[in-house]
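Progress report, Aim 2. The chain analyzed during this reporting quarter is listed below.
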Amino acid sequence: MSEGLADLEAELTGALMVRGAPGFEAEVATFNSSLLHTPLIIVCAETVADVQAAVRYATKYGVQLGVHATGHGYTSFTDGLMVSVRRLNSMTLDVEGHLVTVGAGVRWREVLEASAPHGLSPLAGSSTDVGVVGYLLGSGIAITGRAFGFGTDRVIALEMVTLDGEFRKVDAITEPDLFWGLRGGGGNLGIVTSVTFELVELASFYGGGIYFDGTHVRDVLSAYASWTTTLVEEMCTSLALVWLPPDPSLPEPLRGKLVAHLRVVYLGSESDGDEILAPMRASGPVLLDSVTQMAVTAMDDVHGDPPSAIPFYARGTLFGDINDDTIDAMLSVVGPDVAVPMLMWDLRHQGGAFSREPAVPNAICGRDAAFNWQVVGLATPECVDAVQLVVDQSITATEPWSTGHTLVNLHGAVKDDVDRARAFDSAGYDRMVELVRRYDPQGLLRHGHSIARSVGQSR
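Predicted structure tokens for the chain:
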């Protein structure tokens, strides 16, 4: 693979790193520390021209191509050339138009800090440490989504480099097929260098977490299943069963505990929120209640996702509904007595604005789902096999209530081509396959939820 490297390096503004070079591993570090990226070459792109040069090199020499930004994906990349886009970190805020354009290396925290002083907010997810572009390419499951919909639905334009090395500006008029596939399809059609999307008017909300004794999770979950059928769209919630570590940075009542964690974002008054929450607050013994009026800049406190890298194995599914039988199936595999080290499972309430199609349709599947369920186990070397078995069993056990589909960003580990296709409906998958064949005819792109893997194998 050394052929042509000197010419490639001469074209670049950014650095070219080969495996073993100082800083190589740090450049491709992941949030899921059980995944290891081991490319042969990294192009540390500082400009769009750098991305184009890397793509032209990969195409000329038939080299597999990966993309790395903030490292929050579910798949590893081996050999080939990886383009690190973290230095594409420009941001342009249009306050009057409620729009922002960001480079591929920007994280949600940066957008939030720039927009909040103007009473605006992005439709970010449970952690603002996540990269904006990867999140939006894979559906964008916002914690305010029942009120505002998927973050991806707010995308109005993208800029990208396709596998022919061409720079393209993509929107509903100029490149309608790419515009459909990039929004929710996982981004496996080229390398996106920037995205423009809408912000919403939101400065604060009534929210936080209610932590119940996890040994009472059945009662809390049963109450949650009933309660969510009554909710207004402004009440955005999820319920997680979390195995918390004995970390001194956690509030004392939660350290080392199994907790059922109700996550709350309510876009209404405190008094109305308390009235709506009353049935859930009475559903089990409360260890800690942090629900209060919050600035939108504090949204990370709602879920309290881990701030640093951790090894994990995750899989997800969408539920059409849940009932007592579903709860039995869930807890029979990943309940309080599970015998392997778990991190959490998370049941996110959908419906509301999640269910509505955007004005310009996109590749997101599963708008008819009532819940998204993701199960996450601790994947350290000594227990990874046992954890994978239990997580896989949890998905199998709940199949009767699954819609048969997933969302790309919460799909988790991909088992095979059939599993990969679950992130799309049948027509959507066929359309994605056709787009991959058109825009990546050599099947070189191997990042994220890669349709090219199955397409390439079928050629």
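Residues 48-61 form the longest helix (14 residues). Residues 91-201 form a domain with the Uridine Diphospho-n-acetylenolpyruvylglucosamine Reductase; domain 3 fold (CATH 3.30.465.10). These observations will guide the mutagenesis work planned for the next reporting period.
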